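REQUEST FORM: STRUCTURE PREDICTION
Request ID: SP-0412
Submitted by: Lab K.M.
Chain count: 1
Length (residues): 115
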Amino acid sequence: QVQLVESGGGLVQAGGSLRLSCAASGSIFSITMGWYRQAPGKQRELVAHITSGGSTNYRDSVKGRFTISRDNAKNTVYLQMNSLKPEDTAVYYCNRFPLIGPIKWGQGTQVTVSS
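STATUS: Completed
RESULT:
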């Protein structure tokens, strides 16, 4: 099973930017990948996903602020987050989309946005 390692999180002020990376231990070129997040006390939610061909989709609350991309040669998926808001505070994870079959989560990366 492919292992996923998320990185790039941190503490940022509202309006700031972060770029998250998700490195896979194996090939993901044919897999639709997604970024998910889980805030304290809330369920994990899908933030954005990208197909193998590069088509993207975003949840409404991040449209125009976040950009998902991928580098299949590096088995890496990115999430560029701009104009961050306190409500974006969460642990961010990457995984396949949709979540079908055995799912193993990485450790995630913490994003904290201060007001």
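NOTES: The chain is about 0% helix and 50% strand.
Reviewed by: T.R.
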